[in-house]
């Protein structure tokens, strides 16, 4: 099909690796950093398997961007009371869907633009944990 198609696949697979590693490792601050770095490496390796240098760069950058974007989503969910295992399973399932959708022409490009944009928007609008009845407690 062309180089644009293989670059789109590398972008989508890199985003999927970013979401996967962020979902699995974002429980601690060190895990977040390790998850993003591993996502970049895995995306670059996937790009190398797909084709040549352009795909390596696209996959690596998409892995970093996808990991950073998914860390924002996972950290916000954990802060609001989500469980680590439950979030890891949900995000792993979403990563599988993102990876599969990368093989649809142009969807990898949309993933590479959409997921970081969603994370930036969520980061601006994240609220604190709901206080519930703690707000009525006397100190």
Q: Care to describe what's here?
A:
With 139 residues, the chain is an all-alpha fold. It has one domain (3-118). Helices cover 78% and strands 0% of the residues. Helix 2 runs antiparallel to helix 3. The longest helix is centred in the middle third of the chain and has 27 residues, at 53-79. The termini are far apart.
Whole-number count of domains: 1
Radius of gyration: 17 Å
Structural class: mainly alpha
- Helix-strand pattern: HHHHH
| Global mean pLDDT | 89
Determine the fraction of residues in helical runs and give it as a percent range.
Answer: over 70%
User: Tally of extended strands?
Assistant: 0
Q: Largest sheet at a glance? A: none
Q: What is the tally of helical segments? A: 5
Name the overall outline.
elongated
Low-confidence stretches: none
Please, what is the oligomeric state?
single chain
Fraction in beta strands? under 5%
Distance between the termini: 67 Å
SSE blueprint:
Blueprint: H1 3-25, H2 29-50, H3 53-79, H4 84-101, H5 107-125
Helix pairs in contact: 1-2, 1-3, 1-4, 1-5, 2-3, 3-5
Task: List key phrases describing it.
139 residues, mainly alpha
In a few lines, what is going on in this structure?
The chain is an all-alpha fold.
């Amino acid at each position: 099909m062309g180089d644009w198609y293989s670059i789109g696949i590398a972008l989508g697979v890199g985003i999927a690796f970013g979401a996967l590693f962020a979902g699995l490792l974002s429980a601690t601050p060190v895990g977040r950093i390790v998850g993003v770095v591993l996502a970049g490496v895995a995306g670059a390796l996937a790009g190398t398997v797909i084709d040549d240098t352009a795909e390596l760069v696209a996959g690596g950058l998409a892995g970093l961007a996808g990991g950073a974007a998914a860390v924002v989503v996972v950290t916000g969910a954990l802060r609001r009371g989500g469980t680590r295992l439950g979030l890891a399973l949900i995000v792993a399932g979403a990563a599988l869907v993102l990876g599969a959708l990368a093989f649809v022409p142009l969807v990898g490009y949309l993933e590479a633009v959409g997921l970081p944009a969603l994370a930036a928007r969520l980061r601006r609008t994240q609220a604190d944990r709901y206080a519930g009845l703690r707000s009525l407690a006397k100190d």
